Amino acid sequence: MEKIIANTKKILRKLPQKTNLVAACKGRAAWELEQVVKAGVKIIGENYISQAESHYRALGGKVRWHFIGHLQTNKVKKAVRIFDMIETLDSVKLAEKIDSEAEKINKKIPVLIEINSACEKQKYGVFPQDALALAEKLKSFSYILPMGLMTMGPFSEKEEDYRPYFRKTKEVFEQIKKNFTANSNWKYLSMGMSSSYKVALEEGANIVRVGTAIFGPRFA
Ligand SMILES: *Cc1c(COP(=O)(O)O)cnc(C)c1O
Question: pLDDT tens, 82-110?
Fold first, then answer.
């Protein structure tokens, strides 16, 4: 318990100002979330809607909520109600669903486009070369607020292995930014996890999503 608070504070101290720490909470209990909030975390990251619902019942408006998992269209209705940002938008089809559900409750929902930065076949996200086209299409949706990009990068034990994929994502981020000159909301780059957030910060991330370095290893 004490450990979660100590870990969180240590990470928060290391982050530059204006960097947003998202505590990635998959598989964690509500009491563990209470600890990170006590330690100063302002944003909770959720991968699963069912878990998010129970966490949300426990903490509600005390924090902001980011969805960081793969969003199935049949879960969008719940997602737009709970979340302050969806970090994993990766198709027009999903955008249409989000837009129509958000319209029903008259809520503009911030989104990040998820980039499959290494073009891995089995992974979610759009390829870097397709991101600009998706960003352009998002302009036609009234209830979606495109605010930036998110990427995972291919899993590796070595932190340096992530760098080229983070760099590529930052390039795409800047390229889209040029096309969004009227949109000052285009400002978030969500990259880096426990083993890679330092490299991500060097490559321009201003949102990092950290789980194990806060909570310890996952068993479930
Ligand atoms: C689990 C998860 C994280 C955090 O990963 P850790 O290695 O536990 O820090 C970050 N982003 C996403 C999308 C995740 O699913």
Answer: 999 999 999 999 999 999 999 999 999 99
